[in-house]
Structures are given as C-alpha cells and as structure tokens.
Amino acid sequence: MKLGTFSISLNVKDIHASKAFYEKLGFSELGGDIKQNWLIMKNDTTIIGLFQGMFEKNILTFNPGWDENASPLDSFEDVREIQKQLKKEGVAIEKKIDENTKGPASFVIVDPDGNPILLDQHV
Fold first, then answer.
1. Of the four, 19, 36, 67, 98, which is 20 to 30 A from 85 by CA?
2. Spatial separation of the C-alpha atoms in residues 104 and 58, rounded to whole Å
3. Tens of pLDDT, residues 31-77
4. pLDDT band for position 12 (cuts 50, 70, 90)
5. Which structural domains are found in the chain, ordered by start?
C-alpha cells in the first residue's frame, strides 16, 4: 500500500510565531495562506503543515497523488483503493469517502493511541 507523501499537520496557537520558529529551523513556505491561518512548510524532504484554529489535535497526513513538492504524480494509488484495503484489514474509518466518486477526496482513521491520520488526495 502506497500512502503518498507524508507530513505532519500541527495545531498551532499563533501561526505567525510558529512560522518564525520553523523558519529558524530551516523551513520555508511551500504553500498555504497565512491570512487563512494555514501554511505548508518544507525543509529538504520534510514537510509540516501549520494550522491555527482548524482542528483540535496534531494530525499525521498522507497525500496520495502528490510528490514532496505538492506536484501531481502521473501514477499513484487512489485514496478510495487505500480506504478499501484498510477496511478489508479491519481498520475503522472515522470519516469515509464515497468509493463511487473520482478526484479529490479524503478520509480519516485513528491509531490505537488516538492519533488521527488523514489521507488527503488533492488530484
């Protein structure tokens, strides 16, 4: 199973302070909109998302269909197929995708320790 590019989505209190902190660690903006309280930042192949006021917990995020520069891939495992495989393995799906759709979609699972995992396909 290929889950796609990994990042961690951080629930931050002050996006400006978080941006400044991660820039000191060598991260730079890859995408997002600070005016909307979210940024995607990158350092080499490491990606983090900063999100102020959008969710309660930090989230492990996988993006099928994207490379580490948020560029679409020619070939990838569709998020609906990943959801089907996980269901067969007995993994509970918290937020499901209609498997008869196409294009962008996402679903959420939770690991045994309560950590949310988002599989978020943008293409």
1. 67
2. 22
3. 999 999 999 999 999 999 999 999 999 999 999 999 999 999 999 99
4. very high
5. 5-121 (3.10.180.10)
